[in-house]
Design brief:
The chain is of the alpha+beta class. The chain contains six helices and 15 strands. Helix 1 packs across helix 4.
Length: about 325
């Protein structure tokens, strides 16, 4: 019989369609992705084409004299760094100047690299650049919220295949995050505990949806996962602000992230995916009811009219089976 599960963190009801559930291996990427060259002459993110990007904001140098990771302004930025972000009201209608910051973080020099196949020390450097740019964005007083995300593959919305992530600082707090804050505050008010810490405790205790963990982080498929193989990465230490993560914690995060991405890469044949770091600002780092985390969504199914019309999700994969499938993936040495 189908179940309708409650996701307390997002506030969503999710239909776990047991009657329509597919075997985990049926979500494997069907069409093989074309092989890419290690260097593409026309790619603006490849070494030698640095002049094709806007002025570099930050870089990590490699041992060979070149760069390992770069951060540059997005040439097609959604927001402009010029202006004050002033609010304008005309009767019932309100708008703000489209002020903000938008950068691309180029994760590796190799055009054919993927985050799943980067060595862990390299992935640590990427995460450290994430942290550096997040901190830098929040130094701009016009910025209310910063989102850091990655689109991997065409179905996830990527336009350039060279491995990269994006970071956007905006002068407003998005409604999606506001809704999560409201759910977290409600739980704190009712139970006197962090909803995220309790969720992590329950997932670790249950174990059925766990994929990987170490001393600092745990990765699991949520009980009410919104879609097949939806994965959360939770820090075991309570913090509302990703920018507070230490080098040792980022090393642990790189280990868990690398493990899970490799399992997706091998088990589902490199599926397209999005991930986002959900974090508050440094001024809110001590909040007791919010806990930063990473949400990763493989794009192995599509939303349709039901989701659009109800705001509910239909998940055709049992979260417990998805987690078990990924745990059993045999990774090459």
């Amino acid at each position: 019989m189908p179940e309708i599960r409650s996701n307390p963190i997002t506030g969503d009801w999710v239909i776990i369609a047991t009657e329509r559930a597919r075997r985990p291996e049926e979500f494997t990427q069907k069409a093989a992705k074309p092989a890419l060259p290690p260097l593409a002459p026309d790619c603006p993110f490849c070494p030698g084409n640095e002049s094709k990007t806007p002025a570099e904001q930050f870089r990590v140098d490699g041992t060979d004299g070149g760069w390992l990771v770069r951060a540059v302004p997005n040439r097609f930025a959604a927001l402009t760094p010029e202006g004050t972000g002033e609010r304008h009201t005309n009767g019932f209608r309100t708008h703000l100047d489209g002020v903000g910051l938008h950068e691309v973080i180029i994760e590796a020099p190799a055009h054919d690299a993927t985050m799943a196949r980067l060595p862990i020390p390299h992935l640590v450097q990427v995460l450290q650049v994430y942290r550096h740019r997040l901190r830098a964005f929040y130094k701009d007083r016009r910025i209310e919220h910063v989102i850091l995300f990655k689109n991997h593959g065409e179905a996830a919305g990527t336009s350039l295949v060279h491995p990269h992530s994006q970071i956007v600082g905006m002068p407003v707090l998005p409604s999606q995050l506001r809704a999560r804050l409201e759910e977290a505050m409600r739980h704190w008010g009712n139970a006197g505990e962090c909803l995220y810490c309790r969720t992590l405790h329950e997932e670790l205790r249950d174990g059925a949806r766990m994929i990987a963990e170490n001393s600092s982080f745990a990765a699991f498929v949520p009980y009410a996962a919104l879609s097949p193989f939806h994965i959360w990465f939770f820090p075991k230490h309570h913090s509302a602000y990703f920018g507070e993560a230490t080098d040792a914690q980022l090393a642990d995060l790189a280990g868990v992230l690398h493990d899970v991405l490799r399992r997706l890469d091998v088990g589902l044949a490199d599926p397209d995916y999005n991930f986002v770091i959900r974090s508050l600002s440094p001024q809110e780092s001590a909040l007791k009811y919010f806990h930063w985390y990473i949400s990763l969504v493989p794009r192995v199914t599509k939303s349709a009219g039901f989701e659009l019309g109800t705001g509910m999700f239909i998940n055709t994969a049992l979260p417990e089976r998805s987690a078990e499938f990924l745990r059993r993936v045999s990774l090459p040495a």
